[in-house]
Amino acid sequence: MLKQKNNLINSYLTYLTIEKGLSKNSIQSYENDIIHFFEYCKQEDISLSEVSQSFCEKYIALLDDLSYKKRSLSRKISSLKNFYTFLKKSQKVKENPFLHFKSYSFDNGDREILTIEEVDKLFGSLDKNKLLDIRNFVIMELMYSCGLRVSEVIDLKIDKINLDDMLILIKGKGNKQRFVPFGKSTKDIFSEYIKNFRLLLLNENSDNYLILNRRGKPLSRMGIWKIVRKSLKNAGLSKKFHPHSLRHSYATHLIEGGADIRSIQLLLGHEDISTTQIYINISKTHLKEIHKQFHPRG
Description:
By secondary structure, this protein is mainly α. It has helices at about 1-20, 25-45, 55-65, 70-90, 115-125, 130-145, 150-155, 185-195, 220-235, 245-255, 260-270, 275, 280, 285-295, and strands spanning about 160, 165-170, 175-180. The chain is built from 14 helices and three strands. The protein has a three-stranded antiparallel beta sheet.
């Protein structure tokens, strides 16, 4: 299988060199993008011919969580779309699952947001008296109530959580630190998990990480993704949602609640405020409703 994939990549890179006349740097970028996608397919136990449009959406959402810049994301999508066009012409696959991805779908603020009712439904589907359910509850509290990225949830250690002051110290993108506050209900669930449940997951090799798997080790990024996706499914919520939707919902609900854009930028750990301003575009429907309700000419 590995040899077959290497042959496909080499054939495609030769095609780019001879037929398209691309530079070495461009070809290297194509190769890196394709290899990264191959590795993801291997993790998910999916062959190239089995890749669907929904699988591509999941992969793109994962890239978003990895904090790639928009230009890099668009390039990766373009690389994979062109690669699958080549595979289809070579009769290696029947369809191009990337065909309908014109650009990075989140560039225009097209993020999938849960309503407050849907968030309540998600949390309400978990049994806080069960070990894995309360752990999963904490994971989603960190993403929705605190706005953490999946990678930040994975890396979070207990000593960075101040239950008394209800603050978390996060080392985010670029190793930049920020404080994230949380409320009383979140404090209660954190405290319950840490004092009464997390110890049941510990073993002699466990570190100080907050979120652990069944073997007492830190959860992987894909582990978090599978947990959140399964929880969303169990709650009867749409397949369009993905783990990062919780962080997007956190920001959007802050905007809709009246929070200022600068404060939200700090809470999310965005270096550029233009990234945060995307959420203003997301909330345009809500803003129209406010205008209609409160303005004399609404």
